[in-house]
Model the fold of this input.
Amino acid sequence: MVSFAPMSKQDETTGAPAQATVRLDLWLWAARFYKTRSLARQAVETGKVEVGGQRAKASRAVRLGDALKVARGEEHFEIAVTGLSDTRGPASLAQTLYAETEASRLAREQARALRAAERNGYRAPETKPDKRARRLIKALGDIDAL
Done:
């Protein structure tokens, strides 16, 4: 359920129609980039979200057409705002709130493939190390400290 602010309000200073806006942290939460609003606020405050190429505050107003860069873990998104919502809905509806650039999508897929290739061939041990193995591991750690 996307709630759009009414476009009929007018700006008191210019008399032009006011543009609908939503707080940045609220929009990021509604668009399902972050699980909670406080995580979205924390991401904005730590510089993981840029609006128009500049760091922003959590209370910054997001408008239709704004360009955002969002870093979430190892993934980086470059998106354009296509819808506004202040409520969190289903994922299918949240995906209609933004449009990711093709370059961003390709870069994320390449990074994901690279991480999968790096993990390829690793096999986790089937059991915990026994006493002898722990001593060998500790001895190797001492060699690396030199």
About this structure: The mean pLDDT is 85. The helical segments are 24-30, 37-45, 91-94, 102-119, 131-144. The two ends are 61 Å apart (CA to CA).
